[in-house]
Amino acid sequence: MTSQAFHPIGTPGQPWSEAEKAEWLARQSRQRSYTTDVLSVIERLRPHFDLVEYGRLDYGPDGYPLLAIRSRDWRDDLPTALVTGGVHGYETSGVHGALQFVEQHAADYAGRVNLLVAPCISPWAYERIHRWNANAIDPNRSFRDNSPAQESAALMQLVAPLHDRVLVHIDLHETTDTDESEFRPALAARDGKPHEPGEIPDGFYLCGDSENPQPGFQQAVIEAVAKVTHIAPADANGEIIGSPVVAAGVINYPVRQLGLCAGITDAPYKTTTEVYPDSPRATPAQCNAAQAAAVCAAIDYALAHQ
């Protein structure tokens, strides 16, 4: 679908000043609870996994502990699988799909691979169902040295000791109708640029790394997810969100150049998932299950081809 959208904050053609950012922040409100939805689930996992508090967000008066779930039987001789979710807080199945993977499937990998799962990287944005953090910064363009996003910097610090020991990294995301109706117009307004309407793909797709695309790996994930939910077709230009489709349900991005979460390690196998929760053909349960299936398929392929 396509839409034209005018953003109510700022002057067209002029990037936001601190005043516009403050006006934007004043409009944000808590709509759900990180403590209830996420921390309570993580706490249930404590008997079987190590929980690591790897940082704390301070957006006064609100503070948020950042928690990761770690294999209790961690062994330095095993490869590591990194699973991240909730880089964009509004992308719900990224968070709950990561937790579902741990609850339902992580035990299957004990003794085979070390698991490190950071299920909700942006809890402030999770509560406000937003893409940005409280400073109007997109964490998923901020995984770089001297990151301006607390969320991104904390995760990078957590992962730094494992940088060259991660075999597979799968980062769980969604593409939603609000990308086009709300978040892309807001981005254009914040940066003082025109909003160019786009098309939201109907279905699941992957963003691989253009520097190391690993087509067999991407296809294995697509095939597993196709058993759970439908795969997004290419648009009339042979593209998905403006990028050429290189295989069914797969596009590639230069993940490190763009400061994306998928680029924070040297993992030979890496991908970003994108489900479409607004599709009439998908339910929230299917979206969570699709994310969990993607994680399993990614780890299985990586272990079989290491």
Short description:
The chain has 306 residues and is of the alpha/beta class.
Characteristics of this structure?
eight-stranded mixed beta sheet; 10 strands; two-stranded antiparallel ribbon; alpha/beta; Aminopeptidase; 306 residues; single chain
Written description of the protein model:
By secondary structure, the chain is of the alpha/beta class. It has a single domain (18-304), classed as Aminopeptidase (3-Layer(aba) Sandwich), CATH 3.40.630.10. Helix content is 32%, strand content 20%. The protein has 8 helices and 10 strands. The protein has helices at residues 18-26, 34-44, 92-105, 123-128, 150-159, 177-191, 215-225, 284-304; strands spanning 49-59, 62-71, 80-85, 114-118, 166-174, 205-209, 239-240, 243-244, 250-253, 269-275. An 8-stranded mixed β-sheet has the order 1-2-4-3-5-10-6-9, with helices on both faces. A hairpin with a 2-residue loop joins strand 1 and strand 2. Helix 3 packs across helix 8 and helix 7 (215-225) packs antiparallel against helix 8 (284-304). The protein is globular and about 55 Å long. It starts with 17 loop residues before the first helix and ends with a helix.
